[in-house]
C-alpha cells in the first residue's frame, strides 16, 4: 500500500464538529509498499513550528513545563502534557501534509486547538492506536493522573468520554502509574503498584481482570502479543498476552541502575530499547536472548524526570533527548545500534548526529509516523535562587565571601527556562 499524499480539508472546522479531518489517497498495489522517507540526510534540522507554554514567571511557583509529546497515529496532530497545565493538542499545519520544505519558510507559531485543564500530576498518556481523523469515534486518547482513574478523552472537542476505575483490596479507587492500549486497541492495560489490570475498551467502569506483579509498573511497551513492563526496581518484565488477556511470564531483564521510565520495541518486534532515571545509558535488548543487554548507548539524564526517546517506523533511526538540551540520533546504516558494539570503552563515540536544539532539558522527542518531521519538547523544574529575594547590598556582601560564593556555584540555579513544543524538518531542504 503506497501513500501518495495527504489532502487536508478545513482542519479547524473538524474540531468544531465536522466528521472529515483529511483524506488519504492510496494506491492499492499489494506489491508496492510505502517507503518511509530518509531522515537527517542534510545533517541539519529546519525549525517549522513553535508552541510555547506560559512563562515561568507568569504563575509564580507553578511551573508549566512540558513533560512529553506524542504524534497521533495518523500524523495530523501532536498530543503534549504540560506540568500543572493539563493536556494540549497541537495540529500540524496543512502545508506540511505533503511535499518538501523551502529553507526560507516562515516559522509558524501554533496555539493548541484543544486544551484539557487537568488538575494533579499526569502520570502517563497514550493515543488510541487506530486513531484516524476521518473516523471521529476513533479520535481519542487516555490519561492516568494523580488521585483519578484512567480517563478517555475525545480528540475533537476535549470532552471526557468515559473512565476505567481500579480498586485496591479495601475497595478504594487507586490511580494507575502507567497506561497503554494493546495493539488491537480493544483493551486498556493499567499498571499499578502490585498488579496489572486489563479493561475492555467497550466496557468502562470497574470491570477488569487482574494479574499480580512484584513491583510497580512504571512504563509499558507492546509488540504483538508481547508486553514489556518497566519497574522502579530497575527491572523489565516480559509477558506473553493471549487473546483472552491472560499473562504468561517470560522472564526479567536486569541492567539499569535507576527506575525504568520508558521502553519501546523496534518495529520488527525483535529488539527492545529502554531508559531509566538518573541513568545515562540506553540499553538495547534482544528479546530472544534477554539475559544481558545487546548494546549500550549514551545520553545525558541527570534527573528523575522521564526523558523520552523514539524509534522511526522504518526501524533505522533512534532519537533521544537529554537533560543537556541535545538531541542525539543513531542511524543504523552508519552506527549499527541494533547489534553489539564495543561497549567496554566508555569513551567510544557511537552516535551518528548531535543537534543542540534546546537551551533547557529536552525531555521528549516524537518522530512523525509518515513525514520527515520531528517533534521535541523542552522544560524542567527550576529551583529559585534564594539570593533573588535579598537586597542588592546583601548580595554584594555575600559575593565578597569567597567560600559562600563557591557554595552558590555548586547549587545549580538556572534561568534558562524554555518550555516549548517545536516541530523540526528532518528531510531534504529546498534551497
TrEMBL record:
Polar residues composition bias: residue spans: 15-25
PROSITE patterns: WD_REPEATS_1, WD_REPEATS_2
Keywords: Repeat, WD repeat
Cellular-component GO terms for this entry: Cajal body
Signal peptide: none
Bilayer-spanning residue ranges: none
Record bears the keyword Repeat: yes
InterPro entries per UniProt: SWT21/TCAB1_mRNA_Telomere (IPR051150), WD40/YVTN_repeat-like_dom_sf (IPR015943), WD40_repeat_CS (IPR019775), WD40_repeat_dom_sf (IPR036322), WD40_rpt (IPR001680)
Region (Disordered): 1-25
Protein name, as recorded: WD repeat-containing protein 79
Organism (species): Papilio machaon (Old World swallowtail butterfly)
Lineage: Eukaryota, Metazoa, Ecdysozoa, Arthropoda, Hexapoda
Amino acid at each position: 500500500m503506497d501513500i501518495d499524499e495527504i489532502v487536508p480539508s478545513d482542519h479547524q472546522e473538524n474540531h468544531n464538529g465536522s466528521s472529515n479531518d483529511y483524506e488519504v489517497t492510496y494506491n492499492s498495489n499489494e506489491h508496492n509498499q510505502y517507503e518511509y522517507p530518509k531522515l537527517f540526510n542534510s545533517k541539519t534540522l529546519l525549525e517549522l513550528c513553535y508552541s510555547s507554554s506560559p512563562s515561568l514567571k507568569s504563575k509564580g511557583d507553578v511551573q508549566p513545563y512540558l513533560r512529553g509529546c506524542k504524534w497521533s497515529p495518523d500524523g495530523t496532530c501532536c498530543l503534549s502534557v504540560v506540568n500543572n497545565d493539563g493536556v494540549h493538542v497541537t495540529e500540524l499545519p496543512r502545508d506540511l501534509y505533503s511535499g518538501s520544505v523551502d529553507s526560507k519558510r516562515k516559522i509558524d507559531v501554533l496555539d493548541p486547538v484543544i486544551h484539557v485543564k487537568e488538575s494533579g500530576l499526569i502520570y502517563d498518556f497514550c493515543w488510541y492506536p487506530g486513531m484516524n481523523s476521518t473516523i471521529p469515534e476513533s479520535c481519542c486518547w487516555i490519561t492516568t493522573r494523580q488521585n483519578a482513574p484512567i480517563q478517555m478523552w475525545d480528540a475533537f472537542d476535549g470532552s471526557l468520554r468515559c473512565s476505567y476505575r481500579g480498586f485496591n483490596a479495601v475497595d478504594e479507587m487507586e490511580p494507575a502509574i502507567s497506561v497503554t492500549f494493546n495493539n488491537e486497541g480493544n483493551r486498556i492495560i493499567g499498571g499499578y503498584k502490585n498488579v496489572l489490570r486489563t479493561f475492555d475498551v467497550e466496557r468502562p467502569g470497574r470491570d477488569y481482570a487482574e494479574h499480580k506483579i512484584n513491583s510497580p509498573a512504571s512504563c509499558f511497551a507492546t509488540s504483538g502479543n508481547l508486553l514489556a513492563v518497566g519497574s522502579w526496581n530497575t527491572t523489565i518484565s516480559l509477558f506473553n498476552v493471549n487473546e483472552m488477556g491472560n499473562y504468561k511470564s517470560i522472564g526479567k531483564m536486569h541492567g539499569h541502575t535507576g527506575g525504568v521510565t520508558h521502553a519501546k520495541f523496534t518495529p520488527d518486534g525483535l529488539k527492545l530499547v529502554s531508559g531509566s532515571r538518573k541513568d545515562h545509558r540506553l540499553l538495547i535488548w534482544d528479546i530472544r536472548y534477554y539475559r544481558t543487554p545487546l548494546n549500550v548507548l549514551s545520553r545525558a539524564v541527570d534527573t528523575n524526570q522521564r526523558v523520552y526517546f523514539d524509534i522511526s517506523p522504518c526501524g533505522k533511526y533512534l532519537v533521544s533527548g537529554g537533560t543537556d538540551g541535545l538531541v542525539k540520533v543513531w542511524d543504523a546504516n552508519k552506527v549499527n545500534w541494533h547489534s553489539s558494539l564495543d561497549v567496554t570503552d566508555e569513551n567510544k563515540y557511537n552516535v551518528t548526529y548531535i543537534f543542540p536544539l534546546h537551551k533547557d532539558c529536552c525531555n521528549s522527542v516524537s518522530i512523525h509516523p509518515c513525514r520527515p518531521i520531528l517533534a521535541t519538547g523542552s522544560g524542567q523544574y527550576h529551583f529559585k535562587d534564594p539570593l533573588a529575594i535579598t537586597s542588592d547590598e546583601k548580595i554584594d556582601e555575600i559575593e565578597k565571601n569567597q567560600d559562600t560564593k563557591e557554595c552558590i556555584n555548586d547549587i545549580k540555579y538556572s534561568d534558562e527556562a524554555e518550555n516549548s513544543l517545536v516541530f523540526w524538518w528532518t528531510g531534504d531542504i529546498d534551497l
